Amino acid sequence: MKFVRTIAFVLWVAVTALDLYIELDPRFVVDVPVKLGFAAAFVALWSIVFPPTPRHMGKWLAVLFVYYVWMLLNILFFDNAFGREQMHYGINLEPFHTIRNYVRAYNRGYIPEIAMMNLWGNVAAFAPMGFFLPSLCRPFGNLFAFVPTMFLMISGVEIMQVVTACGSGDVDDLILNLAGVLVTWLVLWPLSRHINNLLRRNRYDS
């Protein structure tokens, strides 16, 4: 088993280094399926190197959270696959304006691929926060603490995207982001609560 873990560790380091290299090199455009492939390989290999046993669940989960945050920041601010070259973007402060345009396009039978990517990407981008935060930090198991925190976090991202010319400032992005993260929190709350209780017991036992 030790030999298997050693091989998995070498592969994990190699996959992580390659992922960082091609994501940060402007010559490469990494499409979503490739990103998901790297993420799946990262999780699988890390789970072999550092199995998510009850005793080690905290460290295992923390590494996955760091990887997710890195991928999120890359997608939001640097990724060429999402058109993050510096240029002028608009600002929309009218709620549901962009979403209505998507619905109209869908009803006409034609919605551009980039629009679909933007729609579902906004729903999915922050969704893992609905699992990671309440699992790793008990106060976020309270919806009244979690939602305002996510509202401020996502609003800050929207402002930074406008300031750095890496994206548009769209209130509909905020709505979609919050919808995705709230659904994840509600669906996975029993699991995240169980994990958080487990982490607390481990801290007390140690």
UniProtKB/TrEMBL annotation:
In this protein, which residues make up the domain named VanZ-like? Answer: 65-189
Q: Which chain regions cross the lipid bilayer?
A: 33-53, 60-78, 114-133, 140-162, 174-191
Entry keyword set: Membrane, Transmembrane, Transmembrane helix
Cite the Pfam families for this sequence.
VanZ
Output the InterPro entries linked to this UniProt entry: Teicoplanin_resist-assoc, VanZ-like
- Name under which the protein is recorded: VanZ-like domain-containing protein
- Protein's organism: Butyricicoccus pullicaecorum 1.2
